[in-house]
Write a structure and sequence with these properties.
It contains ten helices and eight strands. The protein has 300 residues and is an alpha/beta fold.
Length: 300
């Protein structure tokens, strides 16, 4: 956060990225179906979320980890909130990087899980991913009011709903503890809609819309829901192990250009590529804009 101009707007001649974008690595609290290009890196720890998180940090240099509590869904394992919170305690002990905790998507159960997690993680400033308008926001808001966690407000590609959920959370949580997720999909599945929503939110915030002046997260790993990212297809499409990375990286780069501050990533190779992209993009260009005329006007 802290930007005063569009992302990477170096033509202004000013420093525009006071805080470079951050990458967070996906971990799941149970074995789930994953593309082979992701699974191959974690095959021996897919049933061990603590080991999975440690693998990300120790081997792949993750600067942040997100644990998705899929098993808490009443239709999957219905893991109790206290048990979910104990896992987060264990992960906090195992890795010394910031963490985010994702819910299962069940609005009632997620509220209870988030409350339990916020209690055991007090003092760690964890990120809760995410709150939405289907939840009892007053219930979770009152509980989080005296906690130090950060929340992600989710509103899929709808700026009016983003403003609405942000307004509701202002009654309980300081603005500096709120992030926004406007949702995004991978290439071929609505990437352009996600880009447009994020870009509109960022530009509105820069022009003074105080209800949208929050850092934005982009789940680049959403791209792996695209069949083309992992299915075995004819040779024309190339190896699927490479496609998995391409789909995630392209989604991440599009998010960065739109104004994302945090990227969620599932594949270690994608993680390394996106980190290199960020390192490259946050450096102001060394070529002066007017130098372009030296070759644009050239005759062949």
């Amino acid at each position: 956060g802290g930007e005063t101009l569009p992302a990477f707007f170096y033509i202004s001649g000013k420093a525009v990225m006071p805080h470079p974008p951050v990458l967070t690595a996906d971990v799941f609290d149970m074995r789930i179906s994953l593309p082979r290009a992701v699974r191959m890196h974690f095959e021996d720890v897919l049933d061990d979320p603590v080991g999975w998180a440690k693998r990300w940090v120790d081997k792949y240099g993750a600067e942040m980890v997100t644990i998705h509590m899929i098993s808490t869904d009443p239709n999957i394992k219905d893991t109790p909130p206290k048990e979910a919170a104990k896992l987060i305690e264990d992960i906090l002990q195992a890795v010394k990087v910031p963490i985010a905790v994702g819910g299962s998507g069940n609005p009632k159960k997620d509220v209870e899980v988030f409350k339990a997690v916020a209690d055991v993680a007090q003092g760690e400033r964890i990120v809760l991913n995410s709150l939405n308008l289907d939840m009892d926001l007053a219930d979770i808001g009152k509980h989080l009011k005296d906690r130090d966690c950060v929340v992600i407000d989710f509103s899929p590609m709808d700026l009016d709903k983003a403003r609405e959920i942000n307004r509701k959370m202002y009654d309980y949580i300081p603005r500096e503890r709120i992030l926004n997720d406007l949702n995004i999909a991978g290439p071929g599945y609505g990437l352009e809609y996600g880009f447009t929503a994020i870009e509109r939110a960022r530009l509105a915030a820069l022009m003074g819309d105080t209800e949208l002046q929050h850092p934005i997260i982009v789940a680049a790993s959403n791209a792996l829901a695209a069949r083309e990212a992992w299915m075995k297809m004819e040779d024309y499409w190339g190896p699927r192990e490479l496609r998995t990375v391409i789909w995630e990286v392209v989604t991440g780069v599009v998010g960065l250009l739109a104004g994302a501050d945090i990227l969620f990533v599932a594949n270690p190779t994608s993680y390394q590529v996106l980190r290199e992209v960020i390192n490259l993009m946050i450096r102001p260009p060394t070529v002066k804009p007017e130098d372009i005329y030296d070759w644009v006007s050239s005759k062949f």
